[in-house]
User: Fold this.
Amino acid sequence: MKCVVCKKGETKAGTTTITLEKNGATLIFKSVPARVCAICGEAYVAGDITARLLKTAEEAARSGIQVEIRQYNAA
Assistant:
């Protein structure tokens, strides 16, 4: 797909780091699968993966976690 940010690059399969903040909790997810622009580096994460990350962040905030770094696990 064509990058909507730089409008020049094509995206290819890769990974990115996502930082989410929810109710005082900060979660950093490393190695998240994404389509990444070859020119500007903009990352596009699929909707199902985004939903999973948001659910995990909400659960972490409820459990009292303030800061946590996690490796993305597809399982």
In short: The mean pLDDT is 93.
